[in-house]
Amino acid sequence: MAKRSGLLGERFIGLLTPLALLGLWEAAARMGLVDARFFPPPSSIVNTFGALVASGELWTNLLASLRRLFLGMLLGGVPALFLGLAMGISKPLRAAIDPLISATYPIPKSAILPLVLLIFGLGEMSKVVMVALGAFYPILINTVMGVANIDKIYLDVGHNYRASRWQVFRTIALPGALPSIMAGVKLAMGMGLILIAISEMVAASDGIGYMIWNAWQVLTVDTMYVGLLVIALLGFVFSVILDEIERMLIPWKAKA
Amino acid sequence: MAVVSMLNVKPNPVEAAPPVQISLRGVRKYFGSSGFVAVDGIDLDIPQGQFFVIVGPSGCGKTTLLRMLAGLESVSEGTMKLNRTDPTRPENSMIFQGDSLFPWMTVYDNAAYGLRMRRVAEKDVEESVKLWLERIGLYRFRDRYPNQLSGGMRQRVSIVRAFANDPEILLMDEPFSALDEQNKMLLHEELLRIWEATKKTVVFITHSVDEAVTLGDRIMIMTANPGREKAIIDVPFARPRNVLELRHDPAYGDLVFHIWEQLRDEVQRARMNAEGGK
How far, in whole angstroms, is CA A70 from its chain's centroid? Predict the structure, then answer.
């Protein structure tokens, strides 16, 4: 019980800091300490937020972004997971593919956007592929590391108890790598948010990124802030959800 | 000293009534390109049901020898035969030095590991795991994860994991070396209690002479670098053994002294080799 309330206490403190900063901002904007054209007071941003929700515009854009994000995470994450597990188990495969990964990983994914547009066109697929590219690398790299760093003694135990290759994979490689894989998924989610915003700014007619870019073009500053707020909230909600998933998938870490 | 010199006689193979379970002839192990010889020509017969202890200085190749028996390391030269009496049971299970429980499995799932890898029906797994966990007093901790247990409890679970698998041979690689003295003593008693109930063939590795004499039927002293057999000594104490009473016995002290005398040269030699920077 004490642990639970301690957790709630930490969450409460975590909420307090941003609220205090918002209060300062509101006061500064109203007293003219900052230029309200560039830094509109939070209350006016909230009003705009309400209006965008009421008109349905926010939902349309949010759903479009979420859909691309979700499909992109699947398209990039699932192959990364399987390839990563295979590379973690098989040294020859790792030796064969590692150089490719090391060479392509440092390329900024945003720099590939024009090429992706050229190949996949202006439709949905190009945005999904951008997210997939962003999700692929962190999940792959963390999965390989997770499997490769499993303590050798566990593999010895598996071999001594005559576990088959598939059993070793299922009972040792996968659970042993899971903490590292989850860390990779979290990184991938952050990367996905960045890339979906960028690609929608350049090449979309809906989505949160599009909404922000459009607001810049017509200079509705409040809407830009609403877009940023939504992306920040998404990031927060995703990290809470992923933490919960982690707690369920990795119970042996939580109950120390 | 008369007792001691009597003990030093090698057992007469003619009177070895139980069949030989483990048989080594000229077993050698060297590693890769360095040509480092870890184990150099071991000849050994271990009868079925014997608690066989190998004692030697660190780095004498005793762990390598055990890993060869476990099938985790290949034999470079010589023959190593493990004679099965019951093909339906697994040949051997190893209890490892240090933490070898899977952190992601509960006590129960760890204990059930060997049986599940053999695809034993879940009903029989449950029966066996429950029995063994109860025997060692850990059944009520079955839903805990290893990181919620003390070091002594974790090592008891690894013992259960090996016993529950019901192998013909148990291999133990210094299973208690990380534990404090009190825990070690209790675990010696527990191990003797459950082993005496099953009488499996055991090969037990240790650097502790006390542990060797307390547990073993027969003790092989190994030389260091390369690992060779220096002497084989029979332990005359009757079973079932009471660890505390045993240590009180003057014959116990004599035997420990006698083994330690032989071992001391080896330990010193091993240390000089290490300091010689070879």
Answer: 10
* Residue A154 pLDDT level (bands cut at 50, 70, 90): very high
Query: For the domain that residue A159 is a member of, what is the CATH number?
Result: 1.10.3720.10
Place B15 in a pLDDT band, splitting at 50, 70 and 90: low
A1 lies in some domain: no
Whether residue A15 lies inside any domain: the answer is: no
Contact of A5 with chain B, judged by CB distance below 8 Å, is answered with no
CB B25 within 8 A of CB B43: yes
State the fold for domain B16-91+168-278: Rossmann fold (3.40.50)
**Nearest chain A CA: its distance from B119 CA (Å):** 10
ipTM above 0.85, yes or no: yes
Using a CB-CB distance cutoff of 8 angstroms, which residues of chain B are in contact with residue A176? 102, 104
Q: How far apart are CA B39 and CA B22, in angstroms?
A: 17
For residue A92, being part of any structural domain is answered with yes
| All residues at 6 or more sequence positions from B25 whose CB lies less than 8 Å from its CB, including other chains | B43, B78, B79, B80
Task: CATH 3.40.50.300 in chain B: give the residue spans.
Answer: 16-91+168-278
The answer, for B96 touching chain A at a CB cutoff of 8 Å, is: yes
For testing contact with chain B, the best of A155, A160, A255 (most B CBs within 10 A): A160
Q: Does A10 touch chain B (CB under 8 A)?
A: no
Interface contacts A/B by beta carbons within 8 Å: 61
pTM score, whole prediction: 0.81
Q: Is the pLDDT of residue B27 over 60?
A: yes
Mutate to test the interface with A, among B104, B108, B157 (most CBs of A within 10 A): B104
Among candidates A153, A162, A175 on the partner chain, residue whose Cβ is nearest the Cβ of B117 = A162
Name the H helices within A31-164: 42-55, 57-89, 91-104, 113-120, 124-148, 152-160
* Residue A203: domain span: 40-254
Q: Domain tally for chain A?
A: 1
- Whether residue A13 is contained in a domain is answered as no
Q: What is the average per-residue pLDDT within A13-21?
A: 88
